[in-house]
Design goal:
With 400 residues, the protein is an alpha/beta fold. The chain folds into two domains: 233 residues, 3-Layer(aba) Sandwich (Rossmann fold); 157 residues, CobW-like, C-terminal domain (Hypothetical Protein Yjia, Chain: A,domain 2, 2-Layer Sandwich), CATH 3.30.1220. The chain is 28% helix and 24% strand. The strands form three sheets. It has a seven-stranded parallel beta sheet with strand order 3-2-6-1-7-8-9, with helices on both faces. Strands 10-14-11-12-13-15 form a six-stranded antiparallel beta sheet. It has a two-stranded antiparallel ribbon with strand order 4-5. The termini are far apart. The relative contact order is 0.12. The protein binds guanosine-5'-triphosphate.
C-alpha cells in the first residue's frame, strides 16, 4: 500500500504573496510530482509552464458554512475533501500543495485533514498527511491592515453579506495557527522594521518557524516534508495560550514587547467595562481570554481583541452555574479544575492575556480593577446593573 501523501497548505491574506511563493517552489521542486489545488475565486496566475506533465492543477471554490453555534466560518471543506481524495487515489503524485484563498481561516482547513468526514464518507486521514501549515504575511502591509479597523465587507472581499469578519481578526487567526510563518515582501521594508515586526509576531506565534522572504523566494525544503504539523500542538500554539499555560518569566525584549495575564475573582461592572472598551489602550496588540460579568453570572464571556477589533461572545456556562449533579460529573472528569475552585464562586473568574508594545502593566491593571464591582456593589443585586454590552451570543463590535 502506498504511504500517505503529504500535504502543505499555504494561507495568508489577499496579496501577501502565496502564488508567488507557490510558483517559486514549483520552479525548484527537483522532480517531485506535485498536485496543486488553488482554492480561489479569482484568476489563477500560477505559471502554466510549471504545471506540465509532472504536476496537476485543480480549483476548488470557497464556501461559506454556518456552524452550529451561529458563527459564519469560511471553509473549503467539501470541495477540498473530494479533490484531495481524487488526487490521492490517483497514486501519481508525491505531494499535494494547496493555496487557500486569502480570506480563509486555517483551522477548518486543517480539520479537513485531521478528521474523517462521515457525511461525505471520505476518510482523508487514511489517504494523506498534513505536513505543514504555512502562513504568509505581507511584511509591508501588516501594520496598515492590522490597524485599519476595516471588515472584509468594507473591502468588498467578503463571501456575502453575512460574512462580517474583520481583516485584523483574519490576520490574527492565520498567524496564530501555523507551523511556518513566511514574512514576505521583506524587500519593501528595512531590516529594523522586519526585526520589530518579527518580534511582535513571534509573541503572537511562538511555535512556528519564521522565514523572511523577498519576492516569494523560499527554499522548498522550508515548506515541503517538514513534518511540523500536529493538530493538537498547533491548536495550542498561539502566544496567548502559551502565556496562560506557562509560568510568566520577565521579558528582556529589546522592542518592548511584553505580555501578562490579568486574573481576578471578582466580576466586571458591565457599564464601566463597556465605557472602558472605547478607550482601549493603543499599546495593547492582542488580548484574549474569558470575562466574568456581574449581569451574566451564568455565562463565561469570551473576549478577543486584535488592533481596533473587539469581539465578545458567550463561551459556555460556568461549571458553578450548572445543576449540582452535572457539576460533580464535570469536576470528576477534570480534577484540575478543583485546584482553582473557589468556595463561593466556583470557577467564575476573569482570565485575560494581554500582549503589547511598551505596556504599562500596573496602569492597565489599575484601570481594569476600577471596572470590577466595589465592595458595596458586591452586596447589591447584580442583575439590576445596567448592561449596555452586546447581548447576542456572538457579536462583533468595532470599538472607536
Ligand atoms: N515587492 C514584492 N512584491 C511581491 C513579493 N511577493 C509578491 N509580490 C507581489 O505582490 C502581488 C501579490 O502577490 P501574489 O503572489 O499574487 O499574492 P497572493 O497571496 O497569491 O494573492 P491572492 O491570490 O490575491 O490572495 C503581486 O503583484 C506580486 O508580484 C515580494 O516579496 N516583494
Amino acid at each position: 500500500m502506498q504511504s500517505k501523501i503529504p500535504v502543505t497548505v499555504l494561507s495568508g491574506y489577499l496579496g501577501s504573496g502565496k502564488t508567488t511563493i507557490l510558483n517559486h517552489v514549483l520552479n525548484n521542486r527537483q522532480g517531485l510530482k506535485v498536485a496543486v489545488i488553488v482554492n480561489d475565486m479569482s484568476e489563477i496566475n500560477i505559471d502554466a509552464n510549471l504545471i506540465g506533465k509532472e504536476a496537476n492543477l485543480s480549483r476548488t471554490e470557497e464556501r461559506l458554512v454556518e456552524l452550529s453555534n451561529g458563527c459564519i466560518c469560511c471553509t473549503l471543506r467539501e470541495d477540498l475533501l473530494k479533490e484531495v481524495e481524487r488526487l490521492a487515489k490517483e497514486n501519481r503524485y508525491d505531494y499535494i500543495l494547496i493555496e487557500s484563498t486569502g480570506i480563509s481561516e486555517p483551522i477548518p482547513v486543517a480539520q479537513t485533514f485531521t478528521y474523517s468526514d462521515e457525511e461525505n464518507g471520505i476518510d482523508l486521514p487514511s489517504l494523506c498527511r498534513l505536513d505543514t501549515m504555512v502562513t504568509v504575511v505581507d511584511a509591508h502591509r501588516f501594520w496598515h491592515d492590522f490597524s485599519s479597523g476595516e471588515s472584509l465587507l468594507d473591502r468588498k472581499q467578503a463571501l456575502g453579506e453575512e460574512d462580517t469578519r474583520d481583516v485584523v481578526s483574519l490576520l490574527i487567526d492565520q498567524i496564530e495557527f501555523c507551523d511556518v510563518l513566511i514574512l514576505n515582501k521583506c524587500d519593501m521594508i528595512s531590516a529594523e522594521e522586519a526585526d520589530r515586526l518579527e518580534a511582535v509576531l513571534r509573541k503572537l506565534q511562538p511555535k512556528a518557524k519564521f522565514i523572511r522572504a523577498a519576492h516569494g523566494q523560499v527554499d522548498p525544503k522550508e515548506i515541503l516534508h517538514t513534518e511540523r504539523f500536529d493538530f493538537e500542538e498547533a491548536s495550542q500554539s498561539a502566544g496567548w495560550i502559551k502565556e496562560l499555560q506557562t509560568e510568566h518569566t520577565p521579558e528582556t525584549d529589546e522592542y518592548g514587547i511584553t505580555s501578562f495575564v490579568y486574573r481576578r475573582r471578582r466580576p466586571f461592572h458591565p457599564e464601566r467595562l463597556n465605557d472602558w472598551l472605547y478607550q482601549w489602550p493603543e499599546e495593547v496588540v492582542r488580548a484574549k481570554g474569558m470575562l466574568w460579568l456581574a449581569t451574566r453570572n451564568e455565562l463565561a464571556v469570551q473576549f478577543s481583541q486584535a488592533g481596533p477589533s473587539i469581539q465578545m461572545g458567550a463561551e459556555g456556562y460556568w461549571i458553578a452555574a450548572m445543576p449540582e449533579e452535572e457539576q460533580r460529573e464535570v469536576l470528576a472528569e477534570y480534577p484540575e479544575i478543583q485546584a482553582t475552585w473557589d468556595e463561593l464562586y466556583g470557577d467564575r473568574m476573569t482570565e485575560l492575556v494581554i500582549i503589547g508594545i511598551d505596556l504599562n502593566r500596573s496602569e492597565i491593571e489599575a484601570q481594569l480593577d476600577a471596572l470590577l464591582l466595589t465592595d458595596e456593589e458586591m452586596e447589591l443585586d447584580w442583575s439590576r446593573f445596567p448592561d449596555p454590552l452586546p447581548q447576542e451570543h456572538i457579536v462583533e463590535q468595532e470599538m472607536a
